[in-house]
Amino acid sequence: MNTLNSEAFTLFGQHIKWADMIGNLFGLAALALGWRRSIWTWPVQFLAGLILFGAFFGHLTGSAGKQAVVMVVALYGWWQWQRGEGRGEDGHIAVRFATWRERAAMAAAAAAGTVAVALLFTAYPKLSWDPWPDAYIFVGTVVAMYAQARGMVEFWFAWLLVDLVGVPLNFANGYAFSGFVYVIYGALVLWGMRDWWLRSRKAARPTLEGAPA
Fold it and tell me: Is the separation of the CB atoms in 73 and 146 below 8 Å?
């Protein structure tokens, strides 16, 4: 991993590392595949997590731990989509809005998880140099991926909230390419949100008997 952690190039005065660049390019590809509702989003996300785990390990242990959790959730997402439940007529995962109960559960889990992880990071400073934002991104990423695995449109809202903190935090940590990619993530998230939103409305619209297909 020494080679992956070496500098690839400098962009706008920011030093870009190979692992940071490659891992986030895979992450970007995974998000695009998620937009297309392709099951390959999960192995690509797993590979992105594996590369970024190597980039962060030994330097930002908390961020490395986040990537380990990302890999576990990616395996869950692959299993969930592979089962074939909740698929639409086109063979891809059917998307929907979460129920109010599901939204409340995810919001509560995100809030409680952020506090718990931030307190852990605070108790062990070597895990993170900025416990609360790092915990927010850590837990927000897991919640977003869970919502994606369940085909919920709220997946995109969760990613957007993560991006708002992820961009400045990655620049501050010296992972400039991650910061640049998070900006692109933001654009993809908005497009993906629109696509899933429209698909969910189409899927929820009742078909009148005798109406043309």
Answer: yes
213 residues of the chain, pLDDT tens digit each: 556 566 666 665 666 677 777 877 888 898 889 888 899 999 999 998 888 787 776 666 666 777 888 899 999 999 999 886 556 666 578 899 999 999 999 999 999 999 999 999 899 887 777 889 888 988 998 999 999 999 999 999 998 888 888 777 777 766 666 667 777 777 888 888 888 888 888 765 544 444 443
Alpha-carbon gap, residue 88 to 180, rounded angstroms: 34
Q: Which residues touch 147 (CB under 8 Å, ≥6 apart)? A: 98, 106, 154, 155, 158
Q: Of the candidates 62, 44, 11, which has an alpha carbon nearest to the alpha carbon of residue 175?
A: 11
Rounded CA-CA distance 88/66 in Å is 32
CA atoms within 13 A on the CB side of 1: 13
- This prediction's pTM: 0.80
**Tokens linked to 118:** 């931030």
CA distances from 128 to 68, 87, 148, 154 (A): 15, 39, 27, 28
Which residues make beta-bridge pairs with 16?
A: 9
Question: Using alpha carbons only, what angle is made at residue 87 by residues 73 and 27, rounded to the nearest 5 degrees?
Answer: 35
